Amino acid sequence: MTTPIDPLDQLKGQIIRLYADVATVQVGDAPVECAIRGKLFKADPPAVGDYVALEESGEGYVISGLLPRKSALTRRAAGSTVKSQVLMANIDQVMLVFAAANPPITPAKIDRFLVVAEANRLQAQIIVNKMDLAVGPVEAEIRSLFRPYEQADYEVHYASVRTGEGLEEVRQGLVGKVSVLVGPSGVGKSSLLNALYPGLDLKVGQVSEAYGKGRHTTVGGYLINLPGGAQVADTAGLREIGLWMVPPEELPYCFPEFQPYLGECRFNDCAHLTEPGCAILEALNQGKIDLSRHESYTKLRAEAVETFPRW
Ligand code: GDP
Ligand code: ZN
């Protein structure tokens, strides 16, 4: 026999860690391990960062409901089937981390990450880590690679975990917000967090130890409450970013420096590729829009045209 639950009595919390069949939910000060009621979430599975309602079930708790999301970071699910997946919920901003060297950066990679952030209506900041490796003329090269982004009004933080350069600036950028750190693997995301918050590695270790080594696989990364009022999300699973659900017509809005020219083209349905009287191409010719940014736009548009579902 089940007792009806008064919604006002329902326990609520935030998912800080997600495994295949189990979530860690922060309820007040206590992390609680909860099962996920399977059929509830077939259509809309919970993600790290989600606020959820809990119900008692036998010995423990089960997640029984999902509270409305303020924001969501989505990607196309890996594999061939075209499906979207919410990676993180209730995120304020994306911190894109790249390395000055090792692994090398390409504008195409930067733009792909930025477009995903913009398409999800998330603010984005850029961290260029490993600046200690940018010696001599390489430093100027790196800074000029990121100049178009500064001109497009993105904050770019140059940093090095090795030397400590820029770390305070990065910390200030995190305070009071829920940030998700994304970027290629090996750029130093974990190193940055450990350098900013000494002792964090210990906490992360403790959390994973509580759930039996290797028994569960994290699927959605995790959310960490940091001293000084910052929350940081880590998405271990963010390997392949797709442009799922970005209609090709919306793509120009994902490039902030295109905004002043949108609506100025001769044709209403201008794709800003080769059309006569295109205000974006005009701005490009005048050097007001960076060539590599427009190249990325062209490539990503082709991809969006291919993947956006035609109803
Ligand atoms: P993640 O995959 O993005 O989390 O990257 P990690 O934090 O695991 O770092 C990858 C490698 O880069 C490690 O060997 C780090 O020691 C190294 N690394 C991290 N930050 C720096 C840095 O500022 N300078 C240099 N030279 N190496 C760094
Ligand atoms: Zn145009």
Give the CATH architecture of the largest domain.
Answer: 3-Layer(aba) Sandwich
Task: Spell the H/E element sequence.
Answer: EEEEEEEEHEHEHEHHEEHH
Residues in helix, %: 25-40%
Which small-molecule ligands are present, each listed once?
guanosine-5'-diphosphate, zinc ion
What is the assigned CATH homologous superfamily of the largest domain? P-loop containing nucleotide triphosphate hydrolases
Please state the structural category: alpha/beta
- The main sheet orders its strands as 1-2-3-5-4
Contiguous helical run count: 7
Give the terminus-to-terminus CA distance. Answer: 45 Å
Biggest sheet details: 5 strands, mixed, barrel
General form: flat
Radius of gyration: 21 Å
Count the beta strands: 13
Give keywords.
alpha/beta, OB fold (Dihydrolipoamide Acetyltransferase, E2P), 3 domains, two-stranded antiparallel sheet, 13 strands, 27% strand, disordered N terminus, binds guanosine-5'-diphosphate, binds zinc ion
